[in-house]
Amino acid sequence: MIATGSLGEQQYEVYVLDTSHVPELMTLQQEVVEALPDKAILQPLDEEELLFILQGNGLMIGIFVGDKLIAFRALLEPELDAEHLGYDIGLTTEADLRQVLYQEISNVHPDFRGYGLQRLMAEIVMAQVDSSKHPIICATVMPYNIASLKDKFLQGMHVAALKYKYGGKLRYVFVKYLNEAVVCGEETVDISMGDTEGQQQLLKAGFVGIEMKSAGDDFIVTYRKK
Questions:
Q1: Given a cut of 90, is residue 217 above it in pLDDT?
Q2: pLDDT at position 39, please?
Q3: CA–CA separation, 59 vs 103, rounded Å?
Q4: Count of alpha carbons within 13 angstroms of residue 118, beta-carbon side
Q5: Could you tell me if 128 and 178 are in contact, meaning their C-beta atoms sit under 8 angstroms apart?
């Protein structure tokens, strides 16, 4: 056990997961997907992908209430393939690419939303990272996946790219450097999250996405010049 606390009157415990937890992980993912109004927001990991992380290629933590797994969050040490997010943030050498960890999937059971478990798990799992080995954290998020976008911005991650990944799916590429601060200037631009081309032009011009806010029926992303 690496942490404990309470959710209202219920106690929870946090553990580092292993391969024995795969059936529970598969069940929880299915429960989460079934509760989503837009199933495309979440891409569940299959059994092979879960096992890859749990067999030494990353880290996964889980929150239990009693014997029930109610939430989990994963970090992945990615393979060096053509889709590697390091390329999207400007890395080129194998040594640099190996410094990258991905924030992978994060699931919370529908019955336990509203307790801030996403943020709690982010704090706990990031505290387990060896920043001398993996000082760069990357993640991808679909535009308008508001909960996941809020999670990334709250962690101090910023948008470094917006491009089509994984066979044509539009994704923000987020990054956080654990051992250095990204210094930006004063120049900012607010732009609709739906303006893909406009955001890509800003990113090409050296801007990064630093926060988002609601604007009527839309969401605005604030970009700042590095």
A1: yes
A2: 67
A3: 10
A4: 20
A5: no
The upper half-sphere exposure of residue 155, i.e. CA atoms within 13 Å in the direction of its Cβ, equals 29
Cα 219 from Cα 90, distance rounded (Å): 27
pLDDT by residue (tens digit) across 95-118?
Answer: 999 999 999 989 999 999 999 999
Q: What is the DSSP letter of 183?
A: P
In degrees, rounded to 5, the angle at the alpha carbon of residue 48 between the alpha carbons of residues 84 and 24 is 120
Beta strand residue intervals within 115-182, DSSP E: 136-141, 158-165, 169-177
Of the CA atoms within 13 Å of residue 205, those in its CB half-sphere come to: 14
> Quick one: what percent of the chain has pLDDT higher than 70?
99
Spatial distance between the Cα atoms of 106 and 191, rounded to a whole number of angstroms: 27
